[in-house]
Every structure is written in structure tokens, then in C-alpha cells.
Amino acid sequence: MIDQVYDKQYKERAKELVSQMTLEEKFTQMTYQSQAIPRLGIPAYNWWNEALHGVARAGVATMFPQAIGLAAMFDDAFMEKIADVISTEGRAKYHAFSELGDRAIYKGLTFWSPNVNIFRDPRWGRGHETYGEDPYLTSRVGVAFVKGLQGDDPKYLKTAACAKHYAVHSGPEKIRHEFDAQASPKDMWETYLPAFEALVKEAKVESVMGAYNRTNGEPCCGSKTLIKDILRGQWVFDGHFVSDCWAIRDFHTGHHVTATAPQSAAMALEAGCDVNCGVVYLQLQIAYNEGLVTEEQIDQALIRLYTTRMRLGLFDRDVPYADIPYEANNAPEHAEVNLEASEKSMVLLKNNGVLPLNEAKIGKVAVIGPNADNRVALMGNYHGDASRYTTILEGIEDRIGADKVIYAPGCKLWQPDTNPNPYFAGEGFAEAILAVQHADLAIVVLGLDETLEGEEMHESNSWGSGDKYGLELPGHQEELLEAVTKAAEGKPVILLMMTGSSIDMAWADENVDAILQTWYPGSRGGEAAAHILFGDVSPAGRLPVTFYRSTEELPEFTDYSMKGRTYRYMEQEALYPFGYGLSYTTFQYEDLKIEKAEDTVEVEVCVANTGSVASDEVAELYLQHESPNTATPRWSLKGFKRLHLAPGESQRVCFVLRPQDLWTVQDDGSRILEPGRYTIYVGGGQPDARTLALSGQAPLTAEFYMD
Predict the structure, then answer these.
(1) What is the rounded distance in angstroms from the CA atom of residue 653 to the CA atom of residue 159?
(2) In sequence order, what E strands does 303-416 have?
(3) Is 536 known to be catalytic?
(4) DSSP structure class, residue 441
(5) Which of 9, 65, 258, 530 could form a disulfide bond with 522, CB atoms 3.0-4.6 angstroms apart?
(6) Which stretches of 226-294 are DSSP H helices?
(7) How many CB atoms lie within 10 A of CB 90?
(8) Is 456 in the active site?
């Protein structure tokens, strides 16, 4: 965090530099492609760069698991380490590119990450960019990610992070340019705003990006309520605000809150949007001539932008981060962090005892499915290029030898087949059946990839504009799984699901022996999966989203009320609950203690590994409080800690509940500490019946009272 003395100097220097610009020069600085001003020694700068799970779109870099997988680690300390690796590679690339005079898009130090929107509906295509459905988990891992990106130097930012998409944005993608997300004050302050508030207040995030949609009638990139009143007013945000790409154009083409591009530019600037990803701010000259904006407003935006550039040390010598060599990019030690992240992210959803596999007792393994050798399924969107990819097939072959593997894709990921014989639908069913018949077990790798869920985009999902209509597997994947399981005739069948979101696995839950959720696991995902399958690593990931049984129980996709949504307010039983995940060992929780301090509540518990395998465990704390004044969640996550325990080892875990963790959000959005009874649950998952049935372990529980 930058020292206030230096920060004051940066603001003064930015103000002085802006004062030397002509009005025409100022207009050239307002879009993401800020032009050079040679007479003032100002080089060109492109504000648009991405680092969702690694430096993106700028060539080779370490490619970590997609964001949803990073959230599944439930490990904010390791998340900060990952972000530190990303910022190191970002610095290495930036200085090397700059020395060659390359200041193009994706070459700067302003990273438009993380995405801290709430994944409220499993149909949303961009949900895998987020940290899941829970505001507390999103806040904690989001704060850690920002701290890792921005560094801890008292004088300079390592890179500049960006909290996006402010504030109420999670689909539908198809109508995002015209959609008005209506959210009650309670839902705003209980669900949609807390992560942004935490990133601003705790992590001092350098920038915030507005969303495409309107929120309660106001376009997010021109919202007085969101930007002026809350962000800069209540939260005292001190960084710069950027529009989503071409979102300001939507003011007059989609939302129809303005009639012309100059009016849209004026509306955004007036609200406090400092830089436009797009071209509408090229109309500011016309807006100025028409009296819609003032030079003082333009100066205010530019001072914020140049303060960020000063904080990054872009006009200074002897900046410590400038010494990071190009060789730090894609370094071998970063690859090891990447592998560990992938291993930590995977969630074991079912295991009837078949896992871990004993290599010595296995002859042949059938590896089947369209994602088994699909590099794209490793990536997730907003990715860079890895120097080496290891698919699931390759990871298994590397682990046990290619001579012990029989591979059959079975069917395509989503494309319709052309085989007229219904028994062999998908064209490759026969090969898949032969593979399992000639092997001792089957590992079936199904799911989606970034072409099937994401932004309005790929031909494979033109009908959904990136969203899903339902939770069913596309194409013939479900039929393939059923055919392979039938052909196995009692041989073990293990399902690896590669998705960024909840998918329907009701049939698999009843019929296969084990299920491992791998997400989009990054470039080393195949190695990580093999390590878990063969017991080199015990799985300990947890679901950051609810895996529903169907979408029938959910409200309409366009309904932003939290009623009936996520684990906090859902009314039906989950297939696999938020916070759930199995291990290869067993853990025991005991000796739960609660101590109330002046403004905090301290909770301690002892966690012991009672099994025979060393493993990570995620201890989770949930809080429940029934309010006489408003609807409250069934319970809410308020603490988590990932720890590693050897067999027989135990460790005391301490959670500290802050005042804001105890708040009850009223219908008017006010947050108060209500008197009454509070119940705490501590264990390896939620206190719901489904988690108990799946894990066989009930959490410890205790009560305390607030006066």
C-alpha cells in the first residue's frame, strides 16, 4: 500500500502535468488508447490489459486455472501468491515490450481483473470468470488477488488491479447492452456490493470497471448512485473508473437514456467515468463545444488517470519493479505454483472407494471423452498462451505410461453426429465401448470449454450468446457416459467433469464410481488430475457454487432477487452443495470455543487428521441469525482456513468475526448489528442435510448472544 506522503506527491505531479496539456491534447488521453504527447515527454499508453488467471493475450505466460477453480481452493493466502506471480510476469513483459517501443493493447500494467460479480445463476456464461456465488468468499479471495497484483511497496504499485463489473451484473449475456438489473436495497448491500466494497476499502484496488447493463434504471458506467454516491462518496474510492468496452455506446443504442454519442460521453464523464474502453469519448470535443462538459471535468478525470501512472512509476527511474528481468516470465518456479494451484482447485464430488487408483493393480486404463485431449478445456477465457499444455489424457499417459492407456474420444463436444445408427450415436461410441471392454477401468472426461460458456461469442453457442439454457451436457456426452458405464459391466467408471459452472450430474451421481470436478484447470491440469487420481495428492477443493439438480427450481434468469438463489436462500436440496468436497482421508473437529471481545467474536476449533493419508483440509465457519425484521440467509459463510495435516496431526484453527460479519441487512439496505441469538457451525462443509449425507460428518455448533 502506497505511503500517503508519496501519494500526495503523485497527485500534485499529475495535476501539474495535466495543466500543461492543451485542450486538444487532453481529449487524446480519454480512451483506452491514450496517445503520446512528445513535447511533454509522455509516451503512448494502452490501458487495456487482462490478468484473470495469468497475463492474458500477450503471448506466452503462466496459465493458471480459471478463476472459478482458483476460488475452489478456498485459500486466500495462496491466491495472493498466485497474483504475485502474475504481476511479476506482467512487469517482466511490460518493460521488455516498452524497450522495443511496443505499447499496444495488452502490453500495459493496468490489469482489468479480478471479476468479483456474484455467480447467482448457473446459466450465466461468464460465471467461470468469477469467484462463485458467495459474497464473503468472493471478498476474501478478491482482496488477496488485488494485494498480490498491486504489491506491498510503500512507494509504487507493482501493477494496477481493477474490480469489475460494477456492480450488478451476471447475465443474461444476450441482452446485456439493453438490460436493466433490478435489485432491492437489501440484495444490493447483502449480496452484490460487499465484494466491491472490500476491494476498495481493504485492498485499495486502483481501478473499478462499470458493467454494460443498467442497475435500477441507471447505466452502470454513468450511474450517479453507483459511482458518485457509493463508490466515491461512501467508500471514498481514490482510483480511476473505466467503462466496460463499448458500454458507453449502449447509453444511446441500447438503454436509450441519451440520444447521441456526445450526450453519452457527457453522462459518463459527469458520473465519474475517467477512461472509456471504446470510442465514444472521442466525442468529448463535440460535447465540450455543445456545453455538455467542462474542462474542469476533463482535468479531474485526467488527474486520476495520471495519478495511477505515477503510482506505477511510469515517469520515474529507479522503480524497484522495473528490475524484474524478462526471464521471470513463465519461469520454472511459476510452473510449480501453477501445478499446485491446479491440484488445490479440483473437487472430489463422489468416491465409493475406487480412488485413489493403485497403479500396481491396473493393467489397462480406458480414457474416454471429448475433453480428454482437449487443450481448450484447460484454458477458460481471458487466457494467455502456455509454453506447454498437458491434457488429461497426456497427464495420465505421463503418470502410468502410454502403453497402459487406450484412448477414445467417443463423441464430439457439442456438434451433432452424422451416424444414422442410433445405437452408435456420436460416431465414436463403438470405439469407446471397445476401449472399456479391453481395459480394467474407464476414466470418462466430459464437460464444456470456453467456446460453450463465456461472453456473447462462439458459433457453438450463438443461440445462447455465451449463456446456457439449462444444465444438460451438450451433444451426445450424456449418452456416451451411459453407454460406457453399461459396457463396463461392473468395472470402475470415473467421471472427470471439465466445466466452469454447475452441470447436471444426477445420473452420474447414481451410476458412476467417482466424480472429480476439474474446472478449467490451467496448462498443467492433466498432471494435476493424474496426481489426484493416482493418490500422489489428496483432493481438498471445495465448491464455490451450488451444483443444482435442475434449473426448474431457479427463478427466471432475468430476476436479480436472491430469493431461491444460491445456498443462502435456495429452497430445494442441492445435488452437490456450496462448500462441499471430499478427501482421501478423514478429519475430526472438536473442542469448539467462542470468546466475545469488544467488537469481535473469536472462534477456535481443533482439527485432526484421523486417517492414514496426508491431506489439506478446508475448515469452514457458517453463521446463522434469524431476524425479526427481515428475511435472512439460512446461514452464511463467514470464515475459512485451508490447512495441511499429516496422519494423526492436529491443529487449532482460529476465526475472527468482525463487526461487518455479524451485520444483518435490513430491507432498506441498512446494515445493523441486531441483538439476539447467533449460531455458529464449524466443519468441513455446510450444516445442510445433503452435505451431511454426502460427507458423513456433521459440523460442530455453538451459540452466542448479542445484546
Answers:
(1) 33
(2) 347-351, 365-368, 405-408
(3) no
(4) E
(5) 65
(6) 250-253, 261-271, 284-289
(7) 29
(8) no
- pTM check: above 0.90: yes
Paired strand residues for 45? 34
How far apart CA 456 and CA 475 sit, in angstroms, is: 20
Q: What is the CA radius of gyration of the chain?
A: 26
Residue type, position 18, single letter: V
Q: How far is CA 184 from the centre of its chain?
A: 24
459 confidence band (pLDDT: 50, 70, 90): low
Cell of 535: 493418490
Fill in the amino acid letter for 403: D
Residue 432 identity (one-letter amino acid): A
CATH code for 346-540?
Answer: 3.40.50.1700
Could you give the 3-state DSSP secondary structure of residue 477? helix
Q: Is 502 in contact with 547 (CB distance < 8 Å)?
A: yes
Catalytic residue among 80, 197, 453, 616: 453
Record the cell numbers describing residue 483, joined without a space.
453407454
Give the model's pLDDT for residue 458: 64
Question: 4-33+40-328, which class in CATH?
Answer: alpha beta
- Per-domain residue ranges of the chain: 4-33+40-328, 346-540, 587-706
Name residue 292's amino acid.
L
Q: Tell me, what DSSP letter sits at residue 480?
A: H
Exactly one of 244, 394, 397, 616 is catalytic; name it.
244
User: What one-character-per-residue DSSP string does 398-432 give?
Assistant: HHH-GGGEEEE--S-SSPPP----GGGTTS-HHHH
Task: Locate all alpha helices (DSSP H) within 466-597, ordered by sequence.
Answer: 477-488, 506-511, 525-533, 566-569
What is the strand order of the sheet 207-210 is part of? 162-166, 207-210, 240-242
| Residue 684 three-state SS | coil
132-172 confidence digits (pLDDT tens): 999 999 999 999 999 999 999 999 999 999 999 999 999 99
